[in-house]
Design a protein that fits this description.
CATH architecture: Up-down Bundle
CATH class: Mainly Alpha
Subcellular location: Membrane
Protein name: CDP-diacylglycerol--inositol 3-phosphatidyltransferase
Enzyme class: transferase
Helix content: over 70%
Radius of gyration: 23 Å
Cofactor: Mg(2+); Mn(2+)
Strand content: under 5%
Number of helices: 7
InterPro entries: CDP-OH_P_trans, CDP-OH_PTrfase_TM_dom, CDP_ALCOHOL_P_TRANSF_CS, CDP_diag_ino_3_P_euk
Order of helices and strands: HHHHHHEEH
Distance between the termini: 82 Å
Shape: globular
Low-confidence stretches: 1-20
Mean pLDDT: 82
Length: 222
């Protein structure tokens, strides 16, 4: 007697996870290259620094388009921003020693405000530091809900520090009788100042949120 052997049923194919390259990783590499060239090659360093910052905006759009937004990605994005700005400010402190205190205060304010704001957002249950209570501070509401405003403030702030770095080496090409880098500093300085004011608001708002959470926890224990 012969046995009839039927071919086994094909198992359903499962989608294998794919790993797509993300611009966020490239901007980290560009930032490190920028740090390497900062002591000696201002044009190369500034080009890689600005390219790294430009990829930040592109990375957010790519993550949403590819449905690859993650908590890790959001955290990595914020850390890259903070570390990049901080490393540039360290170089500025070396180039402008008389302004070292201002650069130290700027670094401290930037890191402290974002860290406390992120921590308070997580404690309140937000998935991202950019998801805020719309009934809160009106300045932060505009800052986080208006993409043009967010881009102008962040880009203007980074461009100000980058131009200040370049200005130490040259005034840049002449535009009339004024150097391009000097003119750029005049334009971006108010933006950088406004960004610092928003960081102060960040810090105060986040501190109040944490205090409110502590008060709510104490009320529950009574």
């Amino acid at each position: 007697m012969t046995l009839c052997c039927f071919p086994p049923k094909a198992l359903p194919k499962t989608r294998q996870p794919t790993c797509r390259p993300r611009p966020g990783y490239a901007r980290i590499v560009f930032a490190i290259i920028s740090f390497y060239f900062m002591p000696c090659c201002p044009l190369t360093a500034s080009s890689f620094y600005l390219l790294s910052g430009l990829l930040d905006a592109f990375d957010g759009h790519a993550a949403r388009a590819l449905n690859q937004g993650t908590r890790f990605g959001a955290m990595l994005d914020m850390l890259t921003d903070r570390c990049s700005t901080m490393c540039l400010l360290v170089n500025l402190a070396l180039l402008y020693p008389r302004a070292t205190l201002l650069f130290q205060l700027s670094m401290s304010l930037d890191v402290a405000s974002h860290w406390l704001h992120l921590h308070s957002s997580v404690a309140r249950g937000s998935e991202s530091h950019k998801m805020i209570d719309l009934s809160g501070n009106p300045v932060l509401r505009i800052y986080y809900t208006s993409r043009p405003a967010l881009f102008i403030l962040c880009a203007g702030n980074e461009l100000f520090y980058c131009l200040l770095y370049l200005f130490n080496f040259s005034e840049g090409p002449l535009v009339g009788s004024v150097g391009l880098f000097r003119m750029g500093l005049w334009i971006t300085a108010p933006i950088a100042l406004l960004k610092s004011v928003i960081s102060v608001i960040h810090l105060i708002t986040a501190a109040r949120n944490m205090a409110a959470l502590d008060a709510a926890d104490r009320a529950k224990k009574k």
